[in-house]
Design goal:
Layout: H1 13-24, E1 31-33, E2 48-52, E3 57-61, H2 85-92
Parallel strand pairs: 1-2
Antiparallel strand pairs: 2-3
């Protein structure tokens, strides 16, 4: 279920304060945050925010297309390494069907 429009987007106060002070000082440092739940605000465009994925911080450069999305959407928490090679090899190297016997 989506958040009510009368409430507005959620942004952690400490993150918004830091972005506002950086905008006033015209500073473009990397901001580290654990707040994956914060919505990207137009004031964040042009900044690099390092979002924690549970193990390390993933740097995310915020562009205009990201406004309205959550920070956590751009910092993946799971790493898919692919299916096993053995299973894929048996499917692709299937033997051809035998020819019908000649009469």
């Amino acid at each position: 279920m989506a958040r009510s429009t009368k409430k507005g987007p959620f942004i952690d106060e400490h993150l918004m304060k830091r972005i506002e002070t950086m905008n006033r000082a015209n500073d473009k440092k990397v901001v580290r945050t654990w707040s994956r739940r914060s919505t990207i605000h137009p004031d964040m465009v042009g900044h690099t925010i390092a979002v924690h994925n549970g193990r390390k911080f993933i740097p995310v450069y915020v562009s205009e297309n990201m406004v309205g999305h959550k920070l956590g959407e751009f910092s993946q928490t799971r790493n898919f390494k692919g299916h096993s090679v053995k299973a894929a090899a048996t499917e692709t190297t299937a033997k051809p069907a035998p020819a019908p016997p000649a009469r």
